[in-house]
Amino acid sequence: MSVMRSKATVQSPFEAFLGSARRYGDRPFLREPAGAPVERVPAAASWSYAAAAAEISELQKGYAACGLEPGARVALAAGRPTEVYLHFLALNGLATSLVPVDMSGSDAEITWLLRHSDSKLVVSTPEQMDRLRRITHDIAGCQPVTQFEVAAAAVSDVEPVAGDIRREAALLYTSGTTGKPKGCMLSNEYFLMMGEWYNGLAERHALDSDDRLLTPLPPHHMNALCVSFMAMIRCGGCVVQLDRFHPSTWWSTVRSEGATIVHYLGIMPAILLSLPVCGQEDFGGQIKFGFGAGADPRHHGRFEQRFGFPLLEAWAMTETGAGAAMIADREPRHVGQRCIGRPQADVEYRIVDETDRDVASGEPGELLVRRTGRHPRKGFFSGYYNDEDATREAWRGGWFRTGDVVRAGHDGSVFFVDRRKNVIRRSGENISAVEVESTLLRHPDVANCAVTPVPDELRGDEVFAFIVPRPGSATDRAAAQAIVEHCLEHLSYFKVPGYVSYVDSLPLTASQKVSRKEVRSSASASLETAACFDLRRLKKRSERKAG
C-alpha cells in the first residue's frame, strides 16, 4: 500500500495509519496478551505497524470481493478484540463504515441493531454463524459471513479509496437507559480529532512511539476505538488490548507489558485499592498517567499516593467526541472532587436549569456545549442514524444538550455532579444519585451500591438503594437501618434511601459501568415482591445542630 496523502492533508483514520506505518514500520502497533482466564484468547498476538499494514491490505482484498459500495456498513463481531481495529482500518480505506457488535447481547438486541443499521454484512467467527444465520434470516440484505470467508474471497489487488473528512467511519450505538439504543454516526473527522485532542496532552505528559497504552475497555465502545486507538496511531505508540479487566493479574500485566499509560473506569481504582499490598507498588517511574472517568472521590487521592501516578479524570460522550472533551490534566486538578477539568479555548459551554436559564456560579445545572466560530458541531457526531427528531432535540437551541449535571468552580474548573437522567425528583426536590451513593460508600459495611428512583404515589419518586455488603457484614433490617441512620447524619432527610435491598453484585454493562436501566428495573421488581426493607418512616425532617 502507498501513502495517498501527506500528513498535513490526512482525511481518514486509514490514511493516518498509513503515514504512521511508513514512519514507524517495525515498531509495535497492536498487542493482545494471552488471556489465561479466557479460552477464546489462548495465546498472545502482536502486530508491528508494518505487519498490520500487510494484514489490512489482505483484508481489503477480501472485502472488495464482497462487492461493498462506498458508504455501505459492515457489522463486525470479531473473535479477538484486536481484530476490530484491523477490520476498522481495512473498511475505512474502502470508504465503508464499521458497526461493532457485542455478541454477549440478546438475540433481540442484535437483531434490532443489524436491522436498524442497514448493515450489508455481519462478519464473525465460525462458532457464531449458526446464531447469526438465525438472527439475520428475516433481515433483508444482511449477509452473515465468517472472517475466514472474507479472507478466502480476496481479489488479486485493490486500490484504497481516497479519504473524505466528512464520510462516516463508524456507527456506534449508545447504551441509553430507556428505549432502544441510538446509532451515533461518527465521521473520519471525528476520529482524527480524537487522536489530535489526546496527543494535546503531550504538552504536559509527552507521548511518543515508546508509549504502550494498556486498556481493558472493549473496542466496540468509543473510549477504545476512537480515543486510545487513534491516540496511539497519532504518536506511533502501541495499544495493548486486554479482553477485560482482571484485578488479580492487573499489576503483573502492567509490568510485563511495559505499559506507560493505562485506561480505567471508576470501579477499577476502588477494586485495585481493596487488594492487599503485594511487592513493589510504586509505578511512578513506568506509568505517565491513568486516563478515565468516575473515580470515587474517596479513592482518587489514595490511589495516586499508593501507586505513584495521576488519574486524569476526563469527560466526553460518544456524541461530543473531541468537539467538547474535557480533562483534568493541569493543576489544580482538585483531586477527589469529581473535577473534569476546564473547557478548551475553542469550546463554549453553559450550565442551565430545567427552564434553560443559566444557573448562578457554583450552582449545579445541565451542561450545554458547542464549538466556537462558524462550525459549532465540529468534532461532534454527525447525528443519530434514522432519527432526525432525536438529533434536533439534542441540538435544540444551537447547543448540544449533554444530560449531565455539573457545576463551575471559582477557577473555571468544571465538576461533575450527576447525569440528569439519574436525578431522583422527590416532592419537588432534585436528588443526585451519585451524591447518595458516595455517602453510602462511606459506611464501613458497604462494599458497593447503586441508587435509583422508584415510584411513590405521594412524593413522585422515592430513593431506593441496592447494597453490596462487605464480607461478614449483617444484612438484616437492623443493619439496613444503621446504614440509613448513617445517611441521615450526612444528607438532608429527603435524600436518604427509603428502601434498602441487599444484593451480591450490581448489574454491569459490557464496558463495566453500572447498568442504570437494569438497576431501576430490579428496584421495581423488589418493591413488588417485598424483597427490600421499607425504612421510609426514618425519613423525618429534623433541625441539625450547628457547629
Task: Please identify the structural class as seen in this structure.
Answer: alpha/beta
Radius of gyration: 24 Å
Which segments are poorly predicted (pLDDT under 50) over 5 or more consecutive residues? Answer: 1-7, 36-40, 543-547
Overall mean pLDDT score? 90
Question: How many beta-strand elements?
Answer: 25
Query: How does the overall form come out from the CA principal axes?
Result: globular
User: What composes the largest sheet?
Assistant: 8 strands, mixed
**Treating each run of at least 4 consecutive H or I residues as one helix, how many helices?**
15
What portion of residues is helical? 25-40%
**Separation of the first and last Cα atoms:** 72 Å
* Residue share in β-strands: 15-25%
- Order of strands across the main sheet: 2-1-10-9-11-12-13-14
Report on this structure.
The chain has 547 residues and is of the alpha/beta class. The chain contains 15 helices and 25 strands. 29% of the residues lie in helices and 23% in strands. An 8-stranded mixed sheet has the order 2-1-10-9-11-12-13-14, with helices on both faces. The protein has a 4-stranded parallel sheet with strand order 4-3-5-6, sandwiched between helices. Helix 8 (222-235) links the parallel strand 9 (212-215) and strand 10 (238-241). Helix 1 crosses helix 8 (222-235), helix 2 packs across helix 3 (81-92) and helix 7 crosses helix 8. It is globular, with a radius of gyration of 24 Å. The model is unreliable at 1-7, 36-40 and 543-547 (pLDDT under 50).
